[in-house]
Hints:
The chain is α/β, with parallel strands linked by helices. It has twelve helices and ten strands. Helix 1 packs parallel to helix 12, helix 6 runs parallel beside helix 8 (177-196) and helix 11 (290-299) packs across helix 12.
Amino acid sequence: MEKTRRTFIKKSGKLTLGIGLLGLSACGSETNNETEEEKKDTNTKEMETTKELFFQISLAQWSLHKALGIRGEKKMDNLDFAAKTRNDFGLSGIEYVNQFFKDKAKDMEYLKQLNQRAADNGVEQLLIMIDREGGLAEIDDKIRQEAIENHYKWVDAAKFLGCHSIRVNAFSKSEDPEAAAKAAVDGLGRLAEYAKQANINVIVENHGGYSSNGAWLSGVMSQINMDNCGTLPDFGNFCIKRDGKEPWEGNCVEEYDRYKGVKELMPFAKAVSAKTHDFNTEGEEIHTDYMKMMKIVKDAGYKGWVGIEYEGDSMTEEEGIRATIALLKKVGAKLG
Length: 336
């Protein structure tokens, strides 16, 4: 980065639509004398500005994974996510990751607390991203069946929380893409049948392996052809093959074109993930052309939530989230 984080945040504040982003970035500073009422007023204006865009901005919980204790010292609790999203970033939609409450899917008292926290802060619980419950495209029938059943509790939890979807993984160890696709149609289809009873969508993110091949995943969706089975296009997860043994292990050796992939997945999209890593001094994401990407989203007729998923290391998580908010608002305003 050419400038310090403080300089960048000052500069990114210019990218908002007349909203005091500098005030937001200073929320935790000792020199900030803003009252609680002033904070609420600022965040209300942030939310009103977001509603003027063709999409609404939500926050994916993975953006705070370090603060929540993964790859970093735990500084916040999962129960505080709704308040953090609303009070610190002025956003009104949240996307959970099951890893942060992995043993609570059937804990009704805990889920009631999540509901209460969301209601208290005027936040809508949108979806739960499910990991480590098995690949729904595994060709071994027994393994795939176990993965399907592992997700049932999360469908039920999503319904209780008022979410519209669970995000699942179409992982497969098979080296045969056609066999994996056939298994995915079965696995996703059968899980979607269960979820249909709860009025919950089963959505697949391009999340490594075959699922990061836009043509493969869109083909699977076309074969399933169910209203409650769709996609969650992520702007950055298009690595098809890595040199490690596990899906996220090692360096990427084969990558799918991200713009082509998002365009192929958007007809089935029920959510969108705005992945960011690094920004230049003008506030642009250096790995993804956001104007080009968000035009693809708009041209597909999408008007739903776009979830921020900051994964960079060059800024703090909070700085990265605010930079992504600024970028989305700038691009959204230009696209009209």
